[in-house]
Amino acid sequence: MTRNVLLIDWGRRAEKLLKELSTYTEKGPGVTRLPFSPEHKQALALLQKVMLNAGLSVSLDNAGTLIGRLEGPPDSKTFMMGSHQDSVRQGGGYDGIMGVILPIMALEKLKEESYKLPFSVEILAFADEEGVRFPTALIGSRALAGTYDSSVLSMVDSDGISLKQALTQFGLRPDQISHIKRSPNDIIGFLETHIEQGPILEESDEAVGVVTAICGIERHQIVIKGETGHAGTLPMSGRRDALVGAASIITEVNRMGQEETDLRSTVGSLSLEPNVVNAVPREVRMTAEFRSPNDDKRQSAGEHLHDFAKKIAAGTGLNISCSLTYEQMAQPCDKTMSVILEKSILSFGGRAISLPSGATHDASAIADLCPISMLFVRCRDGVSHKPEEFASSDDMGMAISVLATFLKQVQNL
Ligand code: HGY
Ligand code: MN
Ligand code: MN
Ligand code: MN
């Protein structure tokens, strides 16, 4: 078979599997597959079949990570690949799960070529990266990296089920999660393949690209307290309208991102009380999120937010509190692995462009265990976290060939 047919063949096989996996979802539109759910169980059953078919041994760790292992020579180190199986609500069929299927196809490709790798390989399907069901995320990748914090077990979902109960009901042993930690001496590195979730590869007319760094993130909870009153009788002067204060802060958060390069700023969630048409808003609770590949830039944006909120409070008589609720440092990708990825892409006629990741990934957590690298796959219209999310079978075929070629070079790490 010519190389092109091989490319299309593997990409089509991946496409067919992803189509089937996207049927393991709550009611549509799009894909809603939350961790430790019946849909997660269904996806694991299919992934297990695909892994076994590729000649991997399969196990499920107590954090819910499905592990497909290809045993290398005795005492050889392990190279890890993989991504998350979960989705956002009404999301797409590629975010996360494509990064599990493509490396399995790559191993199958090597098996068909009877190519023996001089090290072991593990392909990981993490249970929870999105943090949609519980207010925490990256449980499985943090457990492997040894940065898992067992206090998350008491976090509850919207039905009041704790993470501990969900894990137990899923047949897992939450009390054993802290023993999952791997030794850095046993691991060569980690490569996560992921849909780009942005427009750069499409604008560059490239099927795949190499990630330079995964952005750092910080999230702030902002509570603005004012005074409610009758919208018709309360005079305008002297009002302590919480939503007016929120509006000034939202405008400033947006301005920061607009004016600073390499900074994304978003007020993504907001609730207000009493939230009725004819009463002055008494209280607003909202979140502000900053992301950047540059941690200093991100942290000074967070500090500026706090200073700005104090200024608004002083000028309006509102009571405003700002608290940092989540922080994740930017993670650079390993240069050596990135160069091998670039060479693999060039060998298939790609231009090997590189780009930062504005989204976070399991690789951000695995960076505490071993060197990380990421391969992005073109994303139609840059759309993600929506049912329209799409990667073509040709581009997935290209990614599979790049992964297989990359693995052949890895021993030079
Ligand atoms: O928020 C993120 O970047 C990821 O999709 N959870
Ligand atoms: Mn996502
Ligand atoms: Mn993802
Ligand atoms: Mn993501």
TrEMBL record:
<keyword id="KW-0479">Metal-binding</keyword>
<feature type="binding site">
    <location>
        <position position="84"/>
    </location>
    <ligand>
        <name>Zn(2+) 1</name>
    </ligand>
</feature>
<dbReference type="Pfam" id="PF01546">
    <property type="entry name" value="Peptidase_M20"/>
</dbReference>
<feature type="domain" description="Peptidase M20 dimerisation">
    <location>
        <begin position="219"/>
        <end position="313"/>
    </location>
</feature>
<feature type="binding site">
    <location>
        <position position="194"/>
    </location>
    <ligand>
        <name>Zn(2+) 1</name>
    </ligand>
</feature>
<feature type="binding site">
    <location>
        <position position="95"/>
    </location>
    <ligand>
        <name>Zn(2+) 1</name>
    </ligand>
</feature>
<dbReference type="GO" id="GO:0046872">
    <property type="term" value="F:metal ion binding"/>
</dbReference>
<dbReference type="InterPro" id="IPR002933">
    <property type="entry name" value="Peptidase_M20"/>
</dbReference>
<comment type="subunit">
    <text>Homodimer.</text>
</comment>
<feature type="binding site">
    <location>
        <position position="130"/>
    </location>
    <ligand>
        <name>Zn(2+) 2</name>
    </ligand>
</feature>
<keyword id="KW-0464">Manganese</keyword>
<dbReference type="Pfam" id="PF07687">
    <property type="entry name" value="M20_dimer"/>
</dbReference>
<feature type="binding site">
    <location>
        <position position="291"/>
    </location>
    <ligand>
        <name>allantoate</name>
    </ligand>
</feature>
<comment type="similarity">
    <text>Belongs to the peptidase M20 family.</text>
</comment>
<dbReference type="InterPro" id="IPR011650">
    <property type="entry name" value="Peptidase_M20_dimer"/>
</dbReference>
<keyword id="KW-0862">Zinc</keyword>
<protein>
    <submittedName>
        <fullName>Allantoate amidohydrolase</fullName>
    </submittedName>
</protein>
<feature type="binding site">
    <location>
        <position position="385"/>
    </location>
    <ligand>
        <name>Zn(2+) 2</name>
    </ligand>
</feature>
<dbReference type="GO" id="GO:0016813">
    <property type="term" value="F:hydrolase activity, acting on carbon-nitrogen (but not peptide) bonds, in linear amidines"/>
</dbReference>
<feature type="binding site">
    <location>
        <position position="95"/>
    </location>
    <ligand>
        <name>Zn(2+) 2</name>
    </ligand>
</feature>
<dbReference type="InterPro" id="IPR010158">
    <property type="entry name" value="Amidase_Cbmase"/>
</dbReference>
<feature type="binding site">
    <location>
        <position position="219"/>
    </location>
    <ligand>
        <name>allantoate</name>
    </ligand>
</feature>
<keyword id="KW-0378">Hydrolase</keyword>
<feature type="binding site">
    <location>
        <position position="278"/>
    </location>
    <ligand>
        <name>allantoate</name>
    </ligand>
</feature>
<dbReference type="InterPro" id="IPR036264">
    <property type="entry name" value="Bact_exopeptidase_dim_dom"/>
</dbReference>
